[in-house]
Amino acid sequence: MRFTLLKDLRQDKAIKPLLNGLLLFMLMYFIADFFVVNATLGLFVSDIKLTLYGNIDEFIDPIDKSVFLEYIHGQIFFMMMILLTLSSVYARLCSIKYYSILVINILMLSALLTLISLFISYFYSQSFIYPYVLSYFIWHTTAFIMALHSLWNLNFATSL
Amino acid sequence: MQQAYKYSVVYFLAFSLLLLLSSLLLFDDKMTLSINGILQYYNGNADKFIIEKSWSTILKIILPHIFAFGLFLMVLLHFILFTKHKKSQLFSKLTYALFIVAFLEIFSPYFIIMGFDFFAYIKLISFILLELLILFTSWLLIASIFEF
What we know:
The complex is a heterodimer of chains A (160) and B (148).
Chain A: H1 15-40, H2 45-53, H3 65-93, H4 97-123, H5 129-155
Chain B: H1 3-30, H2 35-43, H3 55-78, H4 89-113, H5 119-146
Helix pairs in contact in B: 1-5, 2-5, 3-4, 4-5
C-alpha cells in the first residue's frame, strides 16, 4: 500500500483525502455494525441467548446451524479485512512504537476472542456469551478510537 | 517490515485460520466431505427433501466468493513480497496454483448441475487443495516473520 511507503503523508495531496475518506467510512462501518448486530444476533447477553438457543416458552426457535456458520464466516472475512487495513493505517499514522503495538494487540486479540467465544458459546457452553459481549465492545471501542486518533494525526499533527 | 506491521500480518493469519475452519465446517454441514454429499447437495434428493440447485441459486452463492477469494488471495500472497521468497519460483507457482484452484472450487458446481458428476471430485479436491495451499502460504509467512 502506497501510504506505508510515503515519508510525510500530510505533504501528499493525493493520499491525504483518500485516507480521510477511508477512515470516515470505517467510523461509519463501526457505528452501523452496532445496529446490524443488534437487529440480527443481539448486543446484550439476554438477546444473544434468545437468538442462539431460542426459548420454548415463547415458541422461539434457536438459530439454525448453517445460518450461524454463514454468519460467523462472513463476520470473520469482514473483520480480518477491516482490521488489517485499520491497523496498517494506524501503525503508519500513530507510530509511537510501544503504544501503537499495544493498541494493535488489544484490538486484534479482542476481535479474535469475539469470534472464538461466539463459536464456543454456540457449540459448547452458554457461559462464553459473557466474554463474547465484553470482547465485542472492547474491539469496537478500540477500533473507533484508533480511527479517530488516525484522523487527528492525519489532519492536525505537526509531523508524521 | 516495521514491527507493528508484523503484528498485523500475524493476526491476519490467525483470522485466516478461523476463516478456513469456518469454511470447512460450512462445507461439511451443507454437503459433507463426500462425493455423494456434494452430488446430492447440487442435484437434489427427493427422499431427503433436498431441492436441486438452479443456475441462479449457485450464482447467488458464488458471487460474493468471487470477489472475496480474489481479495483474500491477493492480500495473503502480497505479504510474500516482503519475504526472501519474493523472487523465487515457489512464489509464482504458488500464485498460479492458488488462483487456478480457487477458480475450480468456485465454478465446478455449474458442471455438476450440467450432469458432469465427475466435477464433484474436482469440487472436493479443489476445496481441500485450496485449504492446504492457504495453510502452506501462511506457514511460509510465519516462518519468515519469526525467522526459523
